């Protein structure tokens, strides 16, 4: 067999091995054994370029001597032969390492007793993935035919590596898609006709003007407003009006996540990062990549998670829990809160540096009581929605009912109005929906008798809120969820109510035994 025939045969075998194997250790042993038949070597290794480290990581290595370089070493691009090959996309030969030690890895090769080193670029479509390094104890110029042959082998190896990487990328993307689907299915269940925004009052129109102006940019938006004023609806409007609208809009309710899970939900985790982390899981930051992340109730985020969030906002990199490598993300942040963040900063529960990162474009949403002109429009809108859901047509609101709606102070804002209309439609029999006094929560000044009553008249908003919540909870028998539950009556998100109950330290009174 001529040398050419042998080379051809070996190349075929190498390609077959590369196509068959999935395990790189095994693969590399098989490939190097084949190469040995043409070009003797004493060290054969592959290093791949890692852009985050601007260096090369070992991928596979076989050596006849105890290795002087550990396989977890990162060889920097600058100053190494691999870096030269990577930058020039050309083969580099050092025929005599004893006489010529130009690169930083050469002294290690000498320690292993090597005399000659050849580095080949691993090229795919003109992109260099890393290098194939063939070292030998012998010195002297290598046979140019051998170099040509090894360059061909390197091209096949590079293609196989690109395939493995593409396969891993597909796996990662399909995992991400699976998570996005789970998330979207959850969202569809929760969503209540988002999209239509109703309001003609100057105050609300001003808000819409601000949203329209900021939406097309990538600026961070901070939505400030009482509960139920439409912060989430506006966050979606920011996303829909941006060039990111065809990418995901991912919502995180910072108040609803259990403390220990916030970081894993936001930033993801590696397999085995903590007990129960049975599989690798991307966080919501990664799910939102290219799109918008809506951080609802940001004021409720635990301090440790705030520190991590700040880091992501500063350098655009996410560290999954349990991982050493950072993942770059491109995410627009829209945050919302009904809390007074400056007070939280004073109390030490919110980081001031994070506040300034978020407070780039604040938008204050006025409460419903400050834009009463919107009440008739919103009432009609919700009436039409409820009628469509319940398949009832020609519903209209009684005149007195509308007056009552206009007089009420709406502590729960638009959501409270929506829940009230829903209830009124369910309870109405004819075409005219009537809303009488019984629909409005009794004021906090007349709590149910079993509730401990404050000795004095409440003086602060906080006390008022505290009492009002207790009163409604007692009236609903401490039922939080459902159309007759306390959350609906207070116009609050059930999770927000649960968090308030926790924060205020409210406990369901235990039933008293009558003697
Ligand atoms: N201008 C509006 N037009 C139509 N519907 C609205 C409007 N504002 C709010 N809503 C509706 O009111 C409900 C509450 O709105 P949303 O959830 O956006 O409020 P929020 O401020 O995010 O509440 P929370 O602070 O409790 O999270 C939603 O069902 C939303 O569709």
Classification by helices and strands:
alpha/beta
Largest β-sheet summary: 6 strands, antiparallel
- The N- to C-terminal Cα distance equals 107 Å
% residues in beta strands: 15-25%
Placed side by side, the strands forming the largest sheet appear as 3-2-1-6-5-4
CATH topology of the largest domain: Rossmann fold
Domain Sigma-54 factor interaction: 197-426
GO molecular function: ATP binding; sequence-specific DNA binding
Keywords: Activator, ATP-binding, DNA-binding, Nucleotide-binding, Transcription, Transcription regulation
GO biological process, one term: regulation of DNA-templated transcription
Distinctive features:
515 residues, 18 helices, Helicase, Ruva Protein, domain 3, Beta-Lactamase, 17 strands, 43% helix, five-stranded parallel β-sheet, alpha/beta, six-stranded antiparallel β-sheet
